[in-house]
Amino acid sequence: MTDAAPGQHMRAEIAEQPQVFAAITARQAEIAQVATVLAERRPRFVLLAARGSSDHAALYAKYLIEVLLELPAGLVSASTTTLYGAKPDLSDVLYLVVSQSGGSPDLIEATRQARLQGALTVAVTNNPTSDLNSAAELSVDIGAGKEIAVAATKTYSATLLSLYLLIDAVRGGHGTDAMDLPALAAEALSTMESPVTEAVARYRYVERMVTTGRGYSSATAAEGALKLAETTYLAARAYSGADLLHGPVAAIDSDTGVVAVTSAGKGGEAMREIVQAVRQRGADVLAVGSAAQDMPASSRIPLPTTAEEVAPILEVLPLQSLALGLSLARGGDPDNPRGLSKVTRTL
């Protein structure tokens, strides 16, 4: 990796995503086989466990489960099991573990314990031979292929798509709203280059950025902030649009760059007032998404329109490219961010 040009691997893996999406949508029937078991077991509610980028994918899944399946869902803390030894009754509970590597020790142990406590455990990973897959009763292979860059790009979006196909199949769907994503992702990548370049020029010298979104797009905002922080070393924070107005907005001024994720649908429409409020504080607001053109923002990166529940799979693409561009513009190498590795070794 040291002989490669800075950002070479991240750039290549961003560009690879349309092909990755095509491969995953072609496996919809395979993913649906796991969904059949979940539907038959009829869980009372769903718990999701994850770390890092996968935690944001789990947040996306939480919205899918609560809206599409109308089941309560929550994000668990693995440390309640691994550090504190808690053993809750998990009978009739779906325990969905999301981990790109499948190698995080705390997630592996938490999955083993959840299974012992009666949960139906499902691992969603990019490594079908991982210890996490062995610990879980069922597994879904996201099939993104080897990812070399430390910052997750194609594995993150592939996880979102796999989770959507799984959850949609539980309700009897066939992934119809996702089938155009390979072509739409290719379109997005081809049209966003110029506005991303402009955004890099606008934000190159800022030291503070905020990302925000509502509904399904909350996950995109969280992932965007992580990508910016880990590749550019900016102080980047993500807030739900609703939470942003309850205090954090006081810290936003003309020196703050704000990325507002605003795709067509209820979540995007709810962002309009928030974007306006942030603009009134003097912040430079970049609107990203299929509703970006209709937002009172400083600049925009428009994306193709999709069903709202699959929009995050496209929304993250320009945020990945923005992080790549800003890292390079600031003299960094996003393929080798300091202090990071592909697997989080927490207990």
CATH superfamily of the largest domain: Glucose-6-phosphate isomerase like protein, domain 1
CATH topology of the largest domain: Rossmann fold
Sheet with the most strands: spatial strand order: 2-1-3-4-5
Count of alpha and pi helical runs: 15
| Low-confidence blocks of residues | none
Distance between the termini: 29 Å
Topology of this structure?
Blueprint lengths: L7 H8 L1 H9 L2 H14 L3 E6 L2 H17 L3 E3 L3 H4 L10 E7 L5 H12 L3 E6 L5 H5 L2 E4 L12 H17 L10 H11 L1 H11 L4 E6 L3 H16 L2 E6 H4 L11 E6 L4 H5 L1 H9 L3 E6 L9 E4 L8 H19 L18
Parallel strand pairs: 1-2, 1-3, 3-4, 4-5, 6-7, 6-8, 8-9, 9-10
Structure description:
Residues 34-176, 199-337 form the SIS domain. This protein has helices at 8-15, 17-25, 28-41, 53-69, 79-82, 105-116, 131-135, 154-170, 181-191, 193-203, 217-232, 241-244, 266-270, 272-280, 311-329; strands at 45-50, 73-75, 93-99, 120-125, 138-141, 208-213, 235-240, 256-261, 284-289, 299-302. With 347 residues, the protein is of the alpha/beta class. The protein folds into two domains: 8-178, 3-Layer(aba) Sandwich (Rossmann fold); 187-329, Glucose-6-phosphate isomerase like protein, domain 1 (Rossmann fold, 3-Layer(aba) Sandwich), CATH 3.40.50.10490. Helix content is 46%, strand content 16%. The protein is built from 15 helices and ten strands. α9 (181-191) packs parallel to α15 (311-329) and α10 packs across α15 (311-329). The strands form two sheets. Strands 2-1-3-4-5 form a five-stranded parallel β-sheet, sandwiched between helices.
